[in-house]
Amino acid sequence: MNTIDALRQGRDSYAERAWQDAYESLSRADEAAKLAPEDVELLATAAYMLGRDAESMGLLERAHRAYADAGRPLPAVRCA
């Protein structure tokens, strides 16, 4: 599965609340190419729903930094 397919599958699985599939697909996409902050948020939520609290917090911090660096304060605050 290529990066685009993994990302698409991750987003679709997230929408269906298939947390394990979303986590695995988004993680694969993230390993292949740095995810956009919106997708890092999805990965953080999937991780949280699977009980991966520490990982979820780290991902939210990453999304926060990316949003802040991009001059997008409102989503940055949401992640904080």
Q: Can you tell me about this structure?
A:
The protein is built from 5 helices and no strands.
Please estimate the helix content: over 70%
Shape: globular
What characterizes the major β-sheet? none
**What is the oligomer described by this structure?**
single chain
Separation, N- and C-terminal Cα atoms: 32 Å
Order of helices and strands: HHHHH
What is the averaged pLDDT score?
96
Structural class: mainly alpha
What's the quick description here?
The chain is mainly alpha-helical. It has helices at residues 3-15, 19-32, 37-49, 53-69, 73-79.
Can you lay out the helices and strands and say which pair or pack?
Elements: H1 3-15, H2 19-32, H3 37-49, H4 53-69, H5 73-79
